[in-house]
């Protein structure tokens, strides 16, 4: 309760400072509208039916890309982390992909997959992929060698070692990667909507900017932040369900 109270107070102080800055320095509403105008714009935005269509589109792109990134990133990280020859062959390509500016690839994906939701999902998955892959790879590499030897002495099969040792040891790393990936998945979806969107919250923000409805633009940004917070909280809460025995899950409970 004390932590929650501190967080609420910090948010209220932030809005008071915002209001004080706008009023004290006579800032133009076209640059930074006062918080009450943004709140009213947010209420008006949530009363419109098309807003929920844009929310659904962005969520579909974000969650679709996130799921692809989790599946592919986890599997590839485990394979490269446990099989040396695959690590040697494929890791340079994975690193090169990560070092390539993702925004520069957006026109290519639009050319290949079109202007529909498919290209947005692929872009979202591309941004979210590397945190999952790198943490899954690190988790596979971090399995205790002593435990591996115990399983070998016990004549456990490859599948038994993978299911009972490698996966449980890797799960804390994978979940950490997922927490970062959900944030990047949202960024990928919104940026792709900025560049070539005809629907979604990123597209809506672009339209409001063109119409100089700055208060509504801020309302869209706040709505995106709220969605991101909820998704991050849900992914972070998976620790309590998937790895309740781990120290990170105990920290989440506290």
Automatic annotation (TrEMBL):
Keywords: Cell membrane, Membrane, Transmembrane, Transmembrane helix, Transport. It comes from the Bacteria. It is a multi-pass membrane protein. Residues 55-235 form the ABC transmembrane type-1 domain. Its main location: membrane. CDD domains: TM_PBP2 (cd06261). The chain crosses the membrane at residues 53-81, 93-115, 121-138, 171-196, 216-235. The keyword Iron-sulfur does not apply. One of its GO terms (cellular component) is plasma membrane. One of its GO terms (biological process) is transmembrane transport. PROSITE patterns: ABC_TM1. It is found in: Cell membrane. Belongs to the binding-protein-dependent transport system permease family. This is ABC transporter permease.
């Amino acid at each position: 309760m004390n932590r929650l109270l501190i967080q609420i107070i910090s948010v209220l102080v932030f809005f008071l400072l915002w209001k004080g800055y706008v009023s004290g320095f006579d800032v133009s509403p076209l640059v930074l509208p006062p918080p009450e105008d943004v709140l009213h714009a947010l209420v008006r935005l949530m009363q419109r039916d098309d807003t929920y269509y844009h929310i659904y589109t962005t969520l579909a792109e974000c969650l679709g890309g996130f799921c692809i990134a989790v599946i592919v990133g986890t599997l590839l990280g485990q394979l490269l982390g446990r099989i040396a020859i695959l690590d040697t062959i494929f890791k340079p390509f994975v690193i090169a992909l990560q070092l390539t500016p993702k925004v520069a690839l957006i026109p290519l994906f639009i050319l290949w997959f079109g202007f529909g939701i498919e290209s947005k999902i692929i872009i979202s998955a591309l941004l979210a992929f590397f945190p999952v892959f790198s943490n899954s790879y690190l988790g596979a590499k971090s399995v205790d060698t002593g435990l591996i030897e115990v399983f070998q002495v016990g004549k456990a099969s490859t599948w038994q070692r993978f299911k009972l040792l490698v996966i449980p040891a890797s799960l804390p790393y994978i979940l950490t990667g997922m927490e970062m990936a959900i944030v990047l998945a949202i960024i990928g979806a919104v940026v792709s909507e900025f560049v070539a969107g005809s629907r979604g919250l990123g597209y809506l923000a672009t339209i409001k900017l063109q119409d100089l409805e700055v208060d509504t633009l801020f309302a869209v940004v706040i709505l995106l932040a709220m969605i991101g917070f909820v998704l991050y909280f849900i992914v972070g809460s998976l620790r309590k369900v998937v790895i309740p025995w781990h120290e990170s899950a105990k920290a989440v409970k506290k």
